[in-house]
Specification:
Largest sheet: 6 strands, antiparallel, barrel
Structural class: alpha+beta
Distance between the termini: 134 Å
Number of domains: 2
Strand content: 15-25%
Strand order of the largest sheet: 1-2-5-4-3-6
Oligomer: single chain
Number of helices: 3
Number of strands: 6
Length: 220
């Protein structure tokens, strides 16, 4: 009995070392496979990050170009508005051309902003609007008539001043540029800036009507 036990222990000691290397080899192969799979995943993630960085750089470049274009157009708009405020429009043909140029420039600016922000651009005005302004109905322009050159909330700027007898407190009727025969509101002068410019506040305005650049004003 004792001899059998000793023989069994001897066989166990003899066989165990031969199985141990095989066990270690299988375990090492499993770890190598897992490590290789992790490396492959890291490589794929690195490629995705590189691609995303390239797209981000391209977007930043496009955004910079759009911002530069918008700034240039806004400066041009400001220059045109300042020109209109300082000049007296002598004839309707010249006024129509200037207003058309400003409208086109604003449309380009809205389009550029739409591309940059992803928001839809405001719908453009009707094609016949400028043509209607070019030759308004009666009466022709007189010394007591002017135009709104800018809108500042509840206040407006007009191209009339002390040279036309405008004083603080003077009231003027407002007519839409597309219909110079129907009064749509009243403004009151609050400040005479110079001989050809004044600031006024909106006293009354018809429902759903807002004062706009190029609307006609006449002394009541």
């Amino acid at each position: 009995m004792t001899r059998r036990i000793i023989l069994g222990i001897f066989l166990l000691l003899f066989l165990t070392p031969s199985a141990f290397p095989k066990f270690k080899e299988d375990e090492q192969k499993y770890l190598d496979d897992q490590f290789k799979a992790v490396l492959d995943q890291m490589q794929a993630l690195g490629n995705q990050v590189a691609s995303l960085n390239g797209q981000l750089a391209e977007l930043k470049q496009n955004q910079g170009q759009l911002q530069a274009a918008v700034i240039r157009q806004q400066r041009q708009l400001q220059e045109l508005d300042e020109m209109l405020s300082s000049l007296r429009i002598g004839n309707e043909e010249g006024f129509s051309k200037l207003r058309t140029a400003i409208a086109d420039l604003r449309a380009q600016t809205d389009s550029a902003l739409s591309k940059m922000t992803g928001q839809p651009a405001a719908p453009p005005g009707t094609p016949g609007e400028v043509a209607t302004i070019a030759r308004p109905a009666t009466p022709p322009r007189q010394t007591s008539q002017g135009y709104i050159t800018s809108v500042e909330g509840a206040n407006v700027m007009i191209d009339m001043g002390s040279a036309q007898g405008i004083q603080t407190g003077s009231r003027l009727a407002v007519y839409k540029a597309t219909d110079t025969t129907t009064r749509v509101g009243v403004i009151e002068v609050t400040q005479v800036i110079d001989t050809g410019n004044a600031r006024a506040r909106i006293v009354t305005m018809n429902s759903h009507v807002k004062p706009e650049f190029s609307d006609v004003v006449r002394v009541e």
